Amino acid sequence: MNQAPLTYKELQDMKVGDIYYISTNKVNVRFMVKTLPKESYNKKIRSLQLKWSASVIDDEDLNFLATESVMEYGPFVYEQPASVGVTDIGFK
After folding, report:
1. Where are the domains of the chain?
2. Within 10 Å of residue 9's Cβ, how many Cβ atoms?
């Protein structure tokens, strides 16, 4: 699959209950958004950040932090699983 991760702006638009995926070369993790992304300004790094929480279906909660100025470091959130032939977590 050839898709790009969500941008900072797209992450801002997530809604509670939405389903998204974190994908790496070893795993796809399906999660549901639990709290709306909350934006704040980090003075130390001079960048906007988004924080939100999510839960892996039938498993643990996750806390996310995305920094606008360094989105190339993740988190890499996708609308569909981005890796093929890897372990899937949180799928039914």
Report:
1. 8-82
2. 8
CA angle 49, 5, 1 (to 5 degrees): 165
In angstroms, the CA 54 to CA 66 distance is 13
**Distance separating alpha carbons of residues 60 and 42, to the nearest angstrom:** 27
Q: Which amino acid appears at position 22 of this protein?
A: I
Q: Which residues pair with 28 in a beta bridge?
A: 23, 88
The whole-model pTM stands at 0.87
Q: List per-residue pLDDT tens for the chain, 92 residues long.
A: 458 999 999 999 999 999 999 988 889 999 999 999 999 999 999 999 999 999 997 678 999 999 999 999 989 999 999 888 888 888 76
Residues belonging to the chain: 92
The answer to whether 39 and 12 are in contact (CB under 8 A) is yes
